[in-house]
Structure formats: C-alpha cells, structure tokens
C-alpha cells in the first residue's frame, strides 16, 4: 500500500455482519484550504458508523484524509463529500460525520452530516458510556 495521499478507500469484510455495532473514530488532523483566502483550515473529524457488509481500512482512510490537505473547499462541501465517499464504498447501515473546524475570524464551525441505509431501523438506544475526546496532549 502506498504512503502517498489518495482518494482510494479500501475496505474489508465486516467480521460480525449479523450484529449492529458502532465504530467510532477521531481524526484530529484534517486540513484543507479556504477557497476564499487560500489559508489552511484545520478540523477534527469524528466518524461514527454502523457497518453493514464492509468496514473501512484505517491506513487507506488516513491517506484519503491527507488527500484534502491542498484542496480548496468550504467546510460544508468537504464534510458532505467525505461522507458521500464513505457511503459509496461502505454502504453502511448508518454513518455520521462531525467536522469540528478550528476558530477562524472568531468563529468555530461544526458541520454534522449523516446517512441511513434505506429500510434500516436502529435498535433501541442503550447508553452505557460515551466517548470522551481523545488527545495525545497530557492535561493537568
């Protein structure tokens, strides 16, 4: 597998296709370029999905995310495009992408998009825990 940015997303078979389960990913280093100013935009992406027959392979996802580094895109457009590309390859039961863009001109932007497979009905919610934001920075 290459180590260069790529729009190619790889998948692997869901090992537990009979069960609904949540896959939660945090991608804290998303970067694209503002189409108006040319300045970099930085975001943390939070990806949650319930797979159907396929799961996304992590290294290909990382290279896919890197591929936006030099692309000009509005926050709303790039968030929807990432979700759309994931829906095309995964065909998940459910998927939600949250893009939390860092402050620009005193404004934080959050874009949340989701997709539900036609006919899929979620199981009733049992909230056992939530995922706290992860960081490599030690907080005192």
Map the helices and strands.
Layout: E1 11-13, E2 23-33, E3 40-50, E4 54-56, H1 58-66, H2 75-90, E5 94-104, E6 107-116
Antiparallel strand pairs: 1-4, 2-3, 3-5, 5-6
Keywords:
GTP Cyclohydrolase I, domain 2; two-stranded antiparallel ribbon; four-stranded antiparallel β-sheet; 6 strands; alpha+beta; globular; about 140 residues
Describe it for me?
The structure is a single chain. Helices cover 18% and strands 35% of the residues. With 140 residues, it is α+β, with helices and mostly antiparallel strands. It has a domain at 23-116: GTP cyclohydrolase I, C-terminal domain/NADPH-dependent 7-cyano-7-deazaguanine reductase, N-terminal domain (GTP Cyclohydrolase I, domain 2, 2-Layer Sandwich), CATH 3.30.1130. It has a 4-stranded antiparallel sheet, with helices on one face. Strands 1-4 form a two-stranded antiparallel sheet. A hairpin with a 2-residue loop joins strand 5 and strand 6 (107-116). The longest helix has 16 residues, at 75-90. The model has no long low-confidence stretch (mean pLDDT 91). One of its GO terms (cellular component) is cytoplasm. This is NADPH-dependent 7-cyano-7-deazaguanine reductase. Catalyzes the NADPH-dependent reduction of 7-cyano-7-deazaguanine (preQ0) to 7-aminomethyl-7-deazaguanine (preQ1). GO terms for molecular function: preQ1 synthase activity. Keywords: Cytoplasm, NADP, Oxidoreductase, Queuosine biosynthesis.
Number of strands: 6
Strand order of the largest sheet: 2-3-5-6
Q: Estimate the helix proportion, in percent.
A: 10-25%
Level-2 CATH architecture of one domain: 2-Layer Sandwich
Largest sheet entry: 4 strands, antiparallel
CATH fold node name of one domain: GTP Cyclohydrolase I, domain 2
Backbone CA Rg: 16 Å
Q: Which segments are poorly predicted (pLDDT under 50) over 5 or more consecutive residues?
A: none
Question: Which overall shape is indicated by the principal axes computed on the Cα atoms?
Answer: globular
Alpha plus pi helix count: 2
Measured between the Cα atoms of the first and last residue, the distance is 39 Å
Helices and strands: which structural class?
alpha+beta
Residue-averaged pLDDT? 91
At the first level of CATH, the class of one domain is Alpha Beta
Strand content: 35-45%
